[in-house]
Design brief:
Strands 1, 2, 3, 4, 5 and 6 form a six-stranded mixed beta sheet that branches. Helix content is about 45%, strand content about 20%. By secondary structure, the chain is of the alpha/beta class. The protein contains seven helices and six strands; from the N terminus they run βαβαββαβαβααα. α5 packs across α6.
Length: about 170
C-alpha cells in the first residue's frame, strides 16, 4: 500500500484520512495533492464523502490509482448502507467498502450542496420527527439534522484497520 487519498467537502473525510494515516503510517493526500505526489498506478486506500448515496471522487481515483479499499463518509452510522453505496458508486465486489459516520453542519456546506441539504433536512427531518417508532439510527440521524453533530471518532476506523493489518 502506497498512500491514503481523499476528497473532503466539510472536513470529516480529511479528519478520517489523517487518523488513518496516523494508525497505518501511510501518507495521506487530498486527491488534488496526490496527482502531484503519488505515482499513477499506486496502491491506495480512497476516502470520499457520500453525496446522494455515492462516494465522491471514487471513480476518478480508480482511473488513476489501484484502489485497494474505499471508505465512504456520510451521515449514516458507521458500517451501514454499504450495499446501496457500493451499487450507486459502482465499486466492484472485490474491493472492500467501509462506511464511516462523519460530522454534519449544514453551515459548512457551500453552494448547491448547502441548498440541497437544507431541503433534505426540512423534508426528511420532518418525516423522521413525525415517525412514532424510530430506530436508534433514525433518532441519531434526526438529532444530526436538527442540531448538527460531531461524529468523527478514531474507533469508527476499526474495521478498515482490521482489514489493513490483515493485508500486511
Amino acid at each position: 500500500m502506497d498512500a491514503i487519498i481523499y476528497t473532503t467537502n466539510t472536513g470529516s473525510t480529511g479528519q478520517y484520512a489523517k487518523l488513518l494515516a496516523q494508525e497505518t503510517g501511510l501518507p495521506a493526500y487530498s486527491l488534488a495533492e496526490a496527482k502531484k505526489r503519488v505515482f499513477a498506478g499506486a496502491e491506495v486506500v480512497y476516502l470520499g464523502w457520500i453525496m446522494a448515496g455515492s462516494v465522491k471522487g471514487c471513480a476518478g481515483a480508480a482511473k488513476r490509482y489501484q484502489v485497494c479499499a474505499v471508505c465512504g463518509v456520510g451521515m449514516g452510522q458507521t458500517g451501514t448502507q454499504t450495499d446501496s453505496v457500493r451499487k450507486k458508486s459502482e465499486i466492484p465486489a472485490n474491493i472492500p467498502l467501509f462506511t464511516l459516520q462523519g460530522n454534519f453542519n449544514v453551515k459548512k456546506l457551500h453552494g448547491i450542496y448547502r441548498f440541497m441539504m437544507e431541503i433534505m433536512v426540512k423534508t426528511v427531518g420532518k418525516g423522521l420527527a413525525a415517525k412514532k417508532d424510530r430506530t436508534p439510527e433514525e433518532d441519531d440521524m434526526l438529532d444530526m439534522m436538527l442540531h448538527g453533530g460531531e461524529r468523527v471518532k478514531a474507533e469508527n476506523l476499526s474495521a478498515i484497520l482490521d482489514w489493513y493489518r490483515a493485508q500486511q
